[in-house]
Amino acid sequence: MKHAAITIYHNPDCGTSRNTLALIRNSGVEPAIVEYLKTPPGRARLVDLIAAMGVPVRAVLRRQGTPSDELALDDPKWTDDQLVDFMVAHPILMNRPIVVTPLGTRLCRPSELVLDILPSPQLAPFAKEDGEPVIDAKGRRVAS
Question: Domains (ranges, CATH) in the chain?
């Protein structure tokens, strides 16, 4: 398996994150894996990732299983800078997985969004952990 300039900000406890990692590996590439709960990206890197994705800061906020409600992060009073500060202080607030490749940076929810930014084709059939087929025997994306 070749190593490529692909990085995944990964949570091994998350099925979507595991499926995304498996799709990257199914393209013959072993990515750099950043377990962001153990090694948070830091403020500057997080700001760069959000900018590269071209999405609003709020699109990167995870609500389920986080202190989002206790912190009242849905309140429009919070600025983007303040929301980034919350994600730096509580990395669990970062939605996942975020994948960086030479073709772009994307929040891969659902996991098959990673296919749009992988430089190499899929090498084998692939189904998600729940059995949902994603790649057929010819390496093509299965229509959902």
Answer: 2-135 (3.40.30.10)
Count other Cβ atoms within 10 Å, centred on residue 139.
Answer: 14
And the tokens for 73? 């992060």
- With beta carbons less than 8 A apart as the criterion, state whether 104 and 52 touch: yes
- Residue numbers annotated as active site: 14
What is the value of pTM for the model shown? Answer: 0.94
The strand pairing partners of 7, in sequence order, are 32, 100
- Tokens read off for 48: 């760069």
Task: Give the separation between CA 4 and CA 15, rounded to whole angstroms.
Answer: 23
In this structure, the strands spanning 2-10 and 29-35 are parallel
Distance set, CA 31 to CA 56, 71, 72, 79 (Å) = 26, 34, 35, 33
Residue 78 in tokens: 């919070």
Torsion region of 138: left, alpha or beta (phi above 0 gives left; psi -120 to 50 gives alpha): alpha
For 24-48, how does the pLDDT look when each residue is reduced to its tens digit (9 = 90+)? Answer: 999 999 999 999 999 999 999 999 9
Sign of CA dihedral 79, 82, 86, 88: positive
